[in-house]
Amino acid sequence: MEKTENARWIWYPGDFEIRQGLLQNFSREERSYDWPAYWNMDDCHKNVKFKRYYTLEKATSFVVHAIGIGYVEVNGEKFPFGKKILCEPGKNKIRVFVGNTAGLPAAYIEGEIIKSDGGWSASNFVEELPAGSSTLYTDKEQDPNNIYFNTERVQAATVSSINGGVLIDYGRAVFGTLDIKKLALDKPITICYGESDAEALDIDMCYYKEENADANSTPRKRAFRYLFIPETTPEQVEIEAIHEFIPLKNQASFDSDNELMNRIWNISVETFTLCSGMFFLDGIKRDRWIWSGDAYQSYFINQYLFFDENINTRTMLALRGQNEIKQHMNTIVDYSILWVIAVENHYMMTGNKEFLKQIYSKMKSMMDYLLAQTNELGFIYGREKDWIFIDWSEMDKEGTLAAEQILLLKAYNAMIVCGSVVGEDTEKYSEKYEQLERNLMTYFWDEEKGAFIDSYESGKRHVTRHANIFAVLFDFVDKLKAEKILQNVLLNDKITQITTPYFKFFEQDALCKLGQTDRVFNIICDYWGGMVQQDAVTFWEEYIPDEKGNAVYEMYGDPFGKSLCHAWGASPIYLLGRYFAGIRPTSPGYQTFSVEPKLECFSAIDCTFPIKGGSIRIKKEANTLVVCSTKEGGTMSLNGTDVVLKANMEYAFDLPKELVGNSY
Amino acid sequence: MEKTENARWIWYPGDFEIRQGLLQNFSREERSYDWPAYWNMDDCHKNVKFKRYYTLEKATSFVVHAIGIGYVEVNGEKFPFGKKILCEPGKNKIRVFVGNTAGLPAAYIEGEIIKSDGGWSASNFVEELPAGSSTLYTDKEQDPNNIYFNTERVQAATVSSINGGVLIDYGRAVFGTLDIKKLALDKPITICYGESDAEALDIDMCYYKEENADANSTPRKRAFRYLFIPETTPEQVEIEAIHEFIPLKNQASFDSDNELMNRIWNISVETFTLCSGMFFLDGIKRDRWIWSGDAYQSYFINQYLFFDENINTRTMLALRGQNEIKQHMNTIVDYSILWVIAVENHYMMTGNKEFLKQIYSKMKSMMDYLLAQTNELGFIYGREKDWIFIDWSEMDKEGTLAAEQILLLKAYNAMIVCGSVVGEDTEKYSEKYEQLERNLMTYFWDEEKGAFIDSYESGKRHVTRHANIFAVLFDFVDKLKAEKILQNVLLNDKITQITTPYFKFFEQDALCKLGQTDRVFNIICDYWGGMVQQDAVTFWEEYIPDEKGNAVYEMYGDPFGKSLCHAWGASPIYLLGRYFAGIRPTSPGYQTFSVEPKLECFSAIDCTFPIKGGSIRIKKEANTLVVCSTKEGGTMSLNGTDVVLKANMEYAFDLPKELVGNSY
């Protein structure tokens, strides 16, 4: 990197994300107690050193600011932090030692020539690597142990008297704090929060409650749309909400003749924006934990909305933790595997080799950890305390599971792709891949059923959707088998339906991939449209059409256990971008990419999606489709014809009748 | 453990020591900067859970206090901390989840029946073990992240005007803070500290300085005997020193006809007491780091002074860190090995099987780490970045080193002893032991020289004292070879002398073991007596008789680099107890022990030394020696005769003329 870059805070690579991830996973609050995540969590290193050599043509000075204690060493001589240090011409070895028992040790080096831009190494006294940094921390007055949120004041949309108190509706989901502007009472108040009015009004069972609040109270950050203040009147109390966020640029737009779909798009954007901050969260109200499975889906949504590379890498580094692996990610074996697969997807999305170089050794150690629990057939099995999750669904879990093997197969593939890029020997993974692929087809593919069975050891030959969906998504079946899976499993009502929105994501993905966009269009209109009809301002963790009244808020045995703003609820963004607009990279970082719209469900549409270093706009009106990419490398496929797209040229296509639009 | 025990703070075992060890190793201060230790350091877990089952006969209530955030779970139902929780009769599963991003997570459970006494398990979500605790933290108002020192106010012994300022001499070494009682000046003062007057008076080069101090200043904890306040007069300033310490009971006493030896004893006690707190420190002024080599010697001194088991285990747990080993202890290979050997010694001293059970898995992983760097002959070698220390001495370090192999051999022995006690299979270590012993004698024992050579690979056959000393200490040579080592090495002036007090400890130990107590008596009188003559109030890191004036304070190229209160300086305590009083355990925890006094150097002496669960008093007057042990199990050996000692019986022995006393 260039010396002309600006200085920024530097740290041992990965440590910022691990430390902030720890803080994030400790931020869950439920009713009157805190609920730190229930797994083993790494913390950042507490003792690090930074190093850089400078060959100076003239004398120069610099000052080191640090979060922590320590000293600066110039050619062996020690100096304190915060004081100007003069460096003579010639070769200079500069080291900065920082220890911080309270959190992340970090340094900011300020000077004309000697400064903490790119080029510093960081060591934990065992391993020396390029120092880590973030574009969010470029100011010496900052402390990377804190998060500096942007804020937005939100006024009440409606204030009403009810149940002897005041109900405030902000008309939108807020993730933030409160400013009590007025309190004309001679006693403190209780503030009950709710994502729904029902939750806020339930003073016993609402998730969050601020008790003994007065005008000076600054409640902690919480997620809510409603507040209820018992035993007050609208004249006595005025509360502004302060929404907190890390700005992310929405790089996509969507407008169609289908008003419902437009609303679904907008609510998806609102939902995903709320759940995306320093990391991808599952949702804003409940866990606020970083789950690898949830994050996996968020990477895909991000690719078609923010195209923010940093939130991906922050989330992946936080999830992975330090080198030594003590437990599967979130305790779940499949979540560990999804993490490996996600790295390859990130590389395809961004083409970022530097990140691959940083993360590859942690991918390898993760694979070693996984390989240690494979049997002589190459099948991965669960050990005591391992959670073989896949999904909350009835599945024949005797012995090794098909779905888990298909994930592992894809992970080998990811290692081969990523390892080749960083110049590592991937022969081992190729061998493992071949063995596993062979045995997967031998033991788990049931030719008679035309589908993968859950388990071969039980002899039950039970079929669920999960393994079959993964096999389609990861291209492990040929056209013939894929068609069998579509008919025998995905479109077969006798096969237990997917009930969780988590796996619905994968199912829609697979259906689209198998050409079922029309069907998926209907599912989006029904399922997400159902939430829109229920006046949702964000998409929920789960929607069950039959549920009525306050029962819709119940989940996990808790009357308000359901999260009403959940990242995976935003999956229409991905489905619309990936399959309806039909945009996908065909080489890393969209050096080449494919645009293959399937817009028959829309009579008119005007949408833009980001790609690496550019964007693609697709416009359809009547029988004309116009496509424009700001970046070279695209190939447009329409109706069996391929057209190479030059940058910033509008290509107009006449649509044959069958593609003009169904006007759903 | 019994339910009737008192409650105490509990944590994940080892975490308290690891966390406090981190804080300790970050406490070094040098001139105007902090100097955290230069190695990879572990921190405690941040997320733990405690568990216990109670079968209650009647309802009972309890309250959980915690350092950190989290909740209490009773039979699956969650409760906040700090509130009374009622438990119904019958079987109850109680879990306490504590997360603390700022330090050690800990819990204190208060109740009649349900309380944090023994019997709780602690889990890091991977491994479940008996919870850790300390007798220092039994009060719910405490926080195990803090150390609660006892304090002692120290008045100036002399106050004098010098160099235009005031020099205060407290007449003793203080390790603590200051209370500025009077400051009749209209500007802030500078306070220069010194272990010596020369250091305090050197306002540029003194180690510690408090600048801009006023009457409200509370300087941080430092080690000093002198203060110098420039530009003041004795009328203008009055400062009390506040000495801080963790009380340790001196269980030994020593009084003889030799006044110098009495003073050496007393100064040794003062020195060792100052360097012993939460952990064994190398010294109080400079590093304040926990060094495994220094601690190793402190364990031996402790055995004959405080007999404090807890400071041993705290130091060993802090040194060892978490399960995963990333680096040798203090980066030094031999320090890792000494740690393993020390555990066996601690077991012989205390007979504490519980501690062995707790630590054994960490001994095993340490051995795995060491074994990974042995070659086909079983010899351990240094890897890149490993520090093969042994001593600051010229040594032929080509290839593998004899001294290192002898330490490793002793470590195998420790594993066999400790593994057998905890019921582990130690066959592997027996095999390794045999191979290494065989090859050690083949490759490193030089029959012609009658000594171990440093290195066989170089072909130089160079002999230094170190390997030979270790071989004697660990009983790896028969009488014949031991005698050869004595004559050819230890008493051979052509073999480079030991120059460091660190290795002098081992050398005196070996000399005594080979019957050279008379010689060692003289060495003590000369070397330690030399420091007494220089008005030492504590024993130094190093004493070089030829050095004069301020040159005595120089070390490591720093004019005041020498530590004047250094733990290993207290080694006369060990030598007097172990060899002159002749007390040592012959089975774990002094179930049996031997008393074999060698007191010919004293005409009269009255001394007491602790043993596990008792003490032994030895009195010599004229031609009578009286011995009394408060504990059964001792065997007195005198002049070739063994007498079994009954508890609390005085045994008087008439001394033959040659044992009456040399009156040195």
TrEMBL record, chains A, B:
Domain Alpha-rhamnosidase-like N-terminal: 48-208
Stored SUPFAM superfamilies: Six-hairpin glycosidases
Record field: transmembrane: none
Signal peptide start and end residues: none
InterPro entries per UniProt: 6-hairpin_glycosidase_sf (IPR008928), 6hp_glycosidase-like_sf (IPR012341), Bac_rhamnosid6H (IPR035396), Rhamnosid-like_N_bacteroidetes (IPR048932)
GO biological process, one term: carbohydrate metabolic process
Listed Pfam families: Bac_rhamnosid-like_N, Bac_rhamnosid6H
Domain (Alpha-L-rhamnosidase six-hairpin glycosidase): residue spans on this chain: 251-578
Record-linked PANTHER family: ALPHA-L-RHAMNOSIDASE SIX-HAIRPIN GLYCOSIDASE DOMAIN-CONTAINING PROTEIN, C, PUTATIVE (AFU_ORTHOLOGUE AFUA_3G02880)-RELATED
UniProt-recorded name of the protein: Alpha-rhamnosidase
Species this protein is from: Enterococcus avium
